[in-house]
Design brief:
Chain lengths: 362, 329
């Protein structure tokens, strides 16, 4: 069967690996582009959020390449993403495509449903559960390695002597990880990638600012949606960190009592889970402030409900903890130059603030 | 002196007010409602609220500000669930509302922000009332009695709506004044429309630019989701592959399908600009109407800049087109 899935950051490498090891043909949707966005926007509700529109575009482009089945995740709300599957399916039907969607819900909440769906994927190639578990574990490891290598680049880029070198080496690492199939090969590639990154010529005399990245998971993870924010900031000489990585998210959200720490940190400001990454945005900002970060950038799709609530509350957090927060709402109308200008201004202000603080300290 | 409890005339007010009013009065409290929405209330809300919020949330800020100087407590429960349906809750803005209000509006009187999570079981409503009573220094026994009275008032209110087929705003008026207004003469209506949307947009005469009245003047019988008995809505729920996550959106979606079955002449979906849940619901209704053939469907988006003339023109055009199609003109 030809199977596709949503494209998000670097995760397609792991998904492709899993689908291929289950004996199916993986149709990796083209990297999101202007075309993806305009296709998606054309066929989505006007006020659907950017991730919905980009996924719609993803699916349509994958269908052009012959995808027969779309695998995606569900959810229990109240973020809209949990209902994407239903509406995408209805829209595709309305456009006359026979493509089916397989929406995976939390295995803890609906175990039977989960097993049935996994079985539907395994059955055509007669793959046993034990074999599946092995493939799944390896794909999971791949996802973790991808995240680890990506996270490492954000600490290095602000120090690089030759602008763009980190990105070049990171892309090379991605091909290496993509090619690794066996478990020990993966570990080798992981080591190799980290060695390659360590080999980048660095200027350690610089004193980069530190900015925490928070917001809605898709626009945080997918560089096309956020205009390559973390790379842009890195090349401006800023260390960025984020707590949202796909492997981490999947783990937190399929366990019974995930994200305890974040909830605890957010508690003085927000006492209820509000879906999406709303509570993370508040909790993480508190954490970043405590750890001495210079600022926080919140990324959110236009009309994203949880992030709007978070934004309202963040004003207060920002005041109380003296940490500047800039919110960037993204939609199909947002331009790269506009975001870039705002980032430059924000970074300038943070640098000035730091200087003032240092003078005062002397 | 009696304690004064402030209830903003917005959001959940249109759905649960009779319950809370009776509850607080039985506890010997004075209930103060913010005045009906006006330009001033809206403007003060827009000024304070987070810019990206939808107009009902901005308006809510305005109503809270109206109450700020007048009351001892502001009643602002955190609505999490009000029935046992799986995965059904409220829009994230409702879930985070007390926190949002606290972060945005400084120096408010204490908020009563107890969590309404009736999914926990049939006794939760009583536990909730006892918790609220305790905040106000009342004995559990008094709270329980007040809760029972409140439930009776709420039932009566809901009965008025679906028996007399009036909108919640009209039913609230009747409850306030203890009188039943005469129903409008049936023969005046040539068409019936389902006007669907959140109770707090449709029933707020200012923010909906009095759409209900305008439609009636055009000879249209207005039907809303509240006029459908609960079990009929639940029956529609089974036709959907998955519940929507937002209580009010579920009501809208199910009512839309119910009224399509009932063969109404047209469906108008009233949404607020930038409303997250509505983006999904609107498309779902549109696709449903399309799949069933010729069901006229119109979407009206309102925000803080909505003008009366613009909405009236669209309503007139919609009504005219339908009358033309039915050969009435």
């Amino acid at each position: 069967m030809k199977i596709t899935f949503p494209y998000m950051g670097t995760s397609h490498i792991a998904f492709k690996y899993l689908i291929e090891s289950l004996g199916h043909q993986a149709i990796v949707p083209p990297k999101p582009s202007k075309r993806t966005l305009s296709l998606g926007t054309q066929h989505s509700p006007e006020f659907a959020c950017l991730p919905f529109k980009l996924l719609m575009g993803n699916y349509l482009e994958a269908i052009e390449q012959g995808a027969e089945l779309i695998i995606t995740s569900g959810g229990i709300g109240p973020c809209r993403a949990g209902y994407y599957g239903v509406l995408h399916q209805k829209l595709l039907e309305d456009m006359g495509y026979p493509t089916r969607m397989l929406v995976f819900e939390s295995p803890f909440r609906y175990p039977l449903d989960f097993f049935k769906k996994v079985k539907a994927v395994l059955a055509p190639n007669k793959i046993g559960w034990l074999e599946f578990l092995g493939h799944y574990k390896r794909a999971w490891r791949k996802l973790q390695i991808l995240d680890e290598v990506e996270a490492a680049t954000y600490d290095l880029r602000p120090f690089e002597v030759h602008k763009g070198e980190t990105t070049k080496i990171f892309n090379h690492c991605l091909t290496l990880i993509d090619d690794a199939a066996a478990r020990d090969e993966m570990e080798q590639v992981r080591e190799e990638s980290l060695v390659l990154l360590r080999g980048i010529a660095l200027d350690r005399s610089r004193k980069p600012l530190k900015i925490g990245i928070i917001g809605e998971i898709y626009v945080v993870l997918e560089p096309f949606a956020n205009f390559d924010l973390q790379v842009t900031l890195g090349e401006m000489g800023v260390i960025t960190q984020r707590t949202i990585y796909l492997a981490g998210w999947a783990k937190e959200n399929s366990s019974w009592d995930g994200e305890k720490e974040v909830k605890e940190a957010a508690k003085p400001y927000l006492k209820e889970m509000i879906g999406g990454h709303g509570i993370n945005s508040v909790g993480d900002t508190v954490h970043y402030a405590r750890r001495g970060f210079h600022g926080v950038v919140q990324l959110a799709p236009f009309t994203c409900i949880p992030e709007i609530v978070a934004k309202g509350i963040l004003n207060k957090v920002s005041q109380d903890m003296a940490i500047p927060v800039m919110t960037v709402f993204l939609d199909e109308q947002t331009g790269k130059a506009g975001v870039q200008t705002r980032l430059e201004a924000f970074v300038d202000l943070l640098a000035q603030k730091r200087e003032r603080m240092e003078e005062m300290a002397i | 002196m009696k304690l004064r409890i402030g209830i903003p005339r917005s959001l959940a007010y249109f759905v649960f007010f009779p319950f809370w009013k009776t509850f607080f009065r039985s506890l010997d409290m004075e209930v103060v409602i913010s005045p009906a929405t006006s330009k001033g209330v809206l403007d003060s809300g827009v000024k304070e609220a987070v810019a990206d919020a939808c107009v009902p949330i901005k308006l809510f800020h305005g109503h809270v500000l109206e109450l700020k100087e007048q009351v001892d407590y502001i009643f602002l429960p955190r609505l999490v669930s009000i029935n046992k349906e799986d995965t059904v809750t409220f829009c994230p803005k409702f879930l985070g509302l007390p926190d949002l209000i606290r972060a945005t509006l400084p120096n408010l009187p204490p908020l009563i922000d107890e969590k309404v999570d009736l999914q926990k079981g049939p006794w939760e409503i009583y536990r909730l009332c006892v918790r609220i009573g305790r905040v106000l220094g009342k004995s559990p026994w008094a709270s329980l009695l007040a809760c029972r009275k409140g439930r009776a008032a709420q039932q009566q209110y809901e009965k008025i709506i679906w028996q007399l087929k009036v909108t919640p705003a009209e039913a609230l008026q009747m409850v306030e004044k203890y009188q039943v207004l005469p129903p409008a003469a049936e023969e005046e209506y040539q068409l019936s429309f389902a006007v669907l949307g959140f109770p707090y947009t449709i029933n707020d005469r200012f923010i909906s630019v009095d759409m209900v009245k305008k439609l009636r003047q055009l000879g249209v019988r207005v039907l809303t989701a509240e006029m459908v008995p609960r079990q009929n809505l639940l029956a529609q729920a089974r036709k959907l592959p998955k519940n929507l996550f937002w209580h009010f959106s579920n009501q809208v979606m199910r009512a839309a399908m119910y009224f399509m079955d009932e063969k109404v002449d047209g469906i108008i979906h009233v949404t607020a600009f930038g409303c997250g849940p509505d983006a999904m619901v609107n498309k779902m209704i549109e696709l449903e109407a399309k799949a069933r053939g010729k069901i006229p469907f119109m979407n009206i988006t309102i925000d803080e800049h909505t003008g009366e003339a613009g909405v009236l023109t669209r309503l007139e055009a919609f009504v005219d087109m339908l009358k033309l199609r039915r050969g009435m003109i």
